[in-house]
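Data card: per-record layout.
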Amino acid sequence: MKEHNPQNPLLELAANGTPTPAMKTPKKRDLDTMVNGFQGDASGSRSFPIPKPSLERDFQMCVQLNPKISVGPGIWGQRNWIAFVSGHWNGRWGKGTVIPGGQDKQLVAQDLSTHVETNYLLQTHDHPPAFIAVRTEGWRVGPREVLEKLDDPMQSDEVDPKSYSFRLYIHMETGDTRYLHLNTGMWIGSGIRRGTEIIYDAYRVL
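The structure for this 206-residue chain is written out next.
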């Protein structure tokens, strides 16, 4: 049975294969794109050029970690909980400290690939200081023997940062009027582990 979705004519076309009376038939070029997908050639979009994003190094974060607490195996993998001791940061728009008490919630897969999800609070060096909530999510992946060393604070200093990938999505939020621009920013991070410390560079998406 064909389904009707009056709110989305493109879904109507994709589901039923024929346009409804209320919609126009797409041009052949648009229809080919819908059917065949993006081919990596931007020449077809010259009539409506899409801006290409760029990256700008925006700040660096350093966080000291407490020893991890094993929550135990779950249906998706091993769960770990790691509390933040302290930290510091500096960048194009300010500098300050990481307030103790942040958390890193980890999910470790069988191949030791690790999904990280963190929440913590920044304090700026302003007078009075501003407070900025940070949330990150990402993956640390690489060869098993490399990830085993990274999980050991005594061996992680010996690991070449180029031998694994540690990438993050970064979100920030604050009500302080001096830093409202952070609420609508987008960042990706590239990190490393050194002993009990996590260091990452954050790049703003422009």
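Known properties of this structure: The longest strand covers residues 78-91. Confidence is low (pLDDT under 50) at residues 9-15.

See the next section for split statistics.
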